[in-house]
Design brief:
three-stranded antiparallel beta sheet, six-stranded mixed beta sheet, Archaeosine Trna-guanine Transglycosylase, Chain: A, domain 4, disordered N terminus, mainly beta
Length: 102
């Protein structure tokens, strides 16, 4: 499999799929491959494809912010609260234990 193709392959429109928003209410997407800092990340959100510039390197399986998340805001994955932002999280930031608390 080419390095730029995810395990799920290209999206329906032929673009490479890098991450997916699982529920429409989620403020994060799950990365389907390792993401390099500064790269444009192709994300499927429902029926639409969006592009977000990664501000950090993000390992496969980790989360990327798909909108600004203020300190204290809930982190939503699967449409459920999985934590709370311990600091402001910018669009494209890696969302993980360094900026999320239970």
């Amino acid at each position: 499999m080419p390095e730029t193709e995810s395990a799920l392959g290209p999206s329906a429109d032929g673009s490479v799929l890098d991450a997916i928003v699982i529920s429409e209410s989620d403020n994060i997407a799950v990365c389907l491959r390792d993401i390099e800092s500064g790269s444009d990340v192709s994300i499927r959100r429902g029926q639409e494809m969006i592009s977000v510039a990664a501000t950090d390197p993000i390992p496969r399986g980790h989360k990327i912010a798909v909108r600004e998340i203020a300190e204290g805001d809930k982190i939503l994955k699967f449409g459920e609260v999985i934590g709370q932002a311990s600091q402001n999280i910018d669009l494209g930031n890696h969302v993980h234990v360094h900026n999320v608390v239970d």
